[in-house]
């Protein structure tokens, strides 16, 4: 084991340990444990949002896709960028306002209160969706951590997975949401620096971009084609298959929970979009070019890579001094941890708070709830560990499957409930149940993560129509339609409709205090609504 790499990593680990210790002082109640007491600064919430979003997929899965597919993989970056913007426009501000009104600290809290569900079915379905797909998502992060440790320290993937589980579970149990948010901020900066440095070092090593494209073109000309060499309908399907991540952003509980924690919903617009958008553009550019240039280095005999998804850690070890490579390895591990910690926290809230406390009606103290949640984190981590050790160990596909389940389960009902006053609990229950059952059947039993014509009978025919398109992309819109139809056939309570109209009615520019009409018009309507809501004491 290289002592320089180990030194750089241990310095990073010590920093995480200090943050966990510091955050524990502010984690005494479940409100603080799950949403940081709703006092998280927008900069911290925004960076935490993106760090928890991209995960080991950004540092291993996506560069691996660029390594394998070439220029066409850039469509995934486009999907992720526009998905990020959609989250901040469609979900963030309105969810924060509603969460403040209902004192909701989890997504199931919000959905149950917004749709006035007294059957507890929405909460039960939410818990099942979270437990099934979040555990699978956690397993993907553990696998990513295992691959990184294996490449950086010369150990087996399984040993690396065990180390990842131990480190990550320890600081989530210790610090709760504050630890997650502030370690995510540090991890976001590690990820940013890593994905700026590595591509430039690769360019220098390979002899420039022209030289890299020449090598890649000689090895496989399709890797220089924006659609992987496909034309016509096949080219459109190729682009959709990569860009389909966009719809998934609307339904990821570990991401949208960040919006519920921010101190001021107005800051989720311009400051939030600017910070998040800038960070996203830089890291996606870096991750893509790291994989793309890594393939050129591999073809030129400069780099030895046993697995395309290990290209960035392999480049760090090859191109950097050992101590600096240790920090890069730490940056990759940070990407893994920044998502898995959020997912563990959301999964623990689904079991401890949403099911044990709310559904079963077990009345316990707030401190006891935090302790139970910590036990649940350990339990979910063990299940995720088992899946990681026994699963396929292909991070891109593992993340796509879990991402899709959460996208279909939560995305349509979250979006409709925030923007459409006619959304009903019946529509939510039927839509979420369909989303859960169909995603499990289609992805686990019939198609895998993308449609294909190999399925038997009728399912094979459908698979032929959508061949190559991710299952969750089509299923998202089917679920959306199901919820709309059922909601139109049922009727929401009048007080629910009135509340929605009151909170999100168009705020007149007159009567907005001492500010001039010009100053008021300079703001977006969402910002004016948020200001009105805060002034009225609704949030």
TrEMBL record:
The entry's keywords: Cell membrane, Ion transport, Membrane, Sodium, Sodium transport, Symport, Transmembrane, Transmembrane helix, Transport
Name used for this protein in its record: Sodium:proline symporter
Location(s) in or outside the cell: Cell membrane
Main localization of the protein described in the UniProt heading: membrane
Catalytic activity: L-proline(in) + Na(+)(in) = L-proline(out) + Na(+)(out)
GO aspect biological process, one term: proline transport
PROSITE patterns: NA_SOLUT_SYMP_3
Membership in a protein family: Belongs to the sodium:solute symporter (SSF) (TC 2.A.21) family.
InterPro entries, sorted: Na/Glc_symporter_sf, Na/Pro_symporter, Na/solute_symporter, Sodium:Solute_Symporter
Membrane-spanning segments: 5-23, 65-91, 121-140, 160-182, 189-209, 229-251, 272-298, 323-351, 372-389, 395-420, 427-449, 469-489
Lipid bilayer topology: Multi-pass membrane protein
Listed Pfam families: SSF
Cellular component aspect of the GO annotation: plasma membrane
């Amino acid at each position: 084991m290289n002592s320089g790499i180990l030194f750089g990593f241990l310095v990073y680990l010590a920093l995480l340990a200090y943050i966990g210790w510091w955050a524990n002082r502010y984690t005494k109640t479940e409100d603080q444990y799950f949403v940081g007491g709703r006092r998280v600064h927008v900069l911290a919430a925004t960076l935490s949002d993106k760090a928890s979003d991209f995960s080991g997929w950004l540092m291993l899965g996506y560069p691996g896709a660029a390594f394998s597919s070439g220029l066409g993989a850039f469509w995934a970056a486009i999907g992720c960028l526009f998905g990020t913007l959609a989250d901040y426009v469609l979900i963030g501000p309105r969810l924060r306002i509603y969460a403040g009104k209902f004192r909701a600290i989890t997504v199931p809290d919000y959905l149950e209160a917004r749709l006035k569900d007294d059957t507890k079915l929405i909460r039960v379905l939410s818990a099942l969706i979270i437990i099934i797909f979040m555990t699978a998502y956690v397993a993907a992060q553990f696998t990513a951590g295992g691959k990184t440790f294996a490449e950086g320290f010369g150990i087996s993937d399984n040993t690396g997975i065990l180390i990842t589980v131990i480190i990550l579970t320890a600081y989530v149990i210790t610090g709760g949401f504050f630890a997650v948010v502030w370690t995510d901020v540090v991890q976001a900066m590690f990820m940013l620096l890593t994905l700026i440095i590595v591509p430039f070092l690769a360019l220098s090593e390979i002899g420039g971009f022209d030289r890299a494209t020449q090598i890649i073109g000689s090895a496989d000309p399709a890797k220089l084609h924006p659609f992987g060499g496909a034309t016509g309908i096949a080219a459109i399907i190729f682009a959709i298959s990569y860009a389909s991540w966009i719809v998934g952003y609307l339904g990821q509980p570990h991401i949208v929970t960040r919006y519920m924690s921010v101190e001021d919903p107005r800051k989720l617009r311009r400051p939030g979009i600017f910070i998040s958008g800038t960070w996203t553009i830089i890291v996606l550019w870096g991750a893509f070019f790291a994989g793309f240039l890594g393939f050129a280095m591999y073809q030129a005999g400069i780099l030895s890579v046993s697995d395309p998804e290990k290209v960035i850690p392999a480049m760090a070890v090859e191109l950097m001094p050992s101590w600096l490579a240790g920090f890069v390895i730490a940056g990759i591990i940070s990407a893994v941890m920044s998502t898995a910690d959020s997912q563990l926290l959301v999964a623990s809230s689904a079991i401890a708070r949403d099911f044990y406390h709310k559904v079963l009606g077990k009345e316990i103290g707030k401190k006891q709830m935090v302790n139970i949640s910590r036990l649940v984190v350990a339990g979910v981590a063990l299940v995720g560990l088992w899946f990681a050790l026994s699963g396929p160990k292909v991070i891109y596909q593992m993340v796509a499957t879990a991402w899709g389940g959460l996208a279909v389960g939560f995305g349509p009902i979250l979006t409709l409930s925030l923007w459409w006053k006619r959304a009903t609990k019946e529509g939510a229950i039927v839509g979420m149940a369909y989303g859960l059952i169909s995603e499990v059947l289609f992805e686990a039993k019939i198609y895998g993560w993308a449609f294909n014509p190999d399925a038997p009978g009728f399912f094979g025919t459908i698979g032929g129509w959508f061949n190559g398109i991710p299952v969750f992309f089509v299923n998202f819109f089917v679920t959306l339609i199901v919820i709309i139809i059922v909601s139109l056939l049922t009727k929401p309570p009048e007080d629910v409709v009135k509340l929605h109209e009151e909170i999100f009615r168009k705020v007149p520019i007159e009567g907005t205090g001492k500010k001039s009409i010009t100053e008021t018009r300079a703001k977006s309507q969402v910002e004016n609504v948020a200001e009105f809501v805060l002034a009225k004491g609704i949030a």
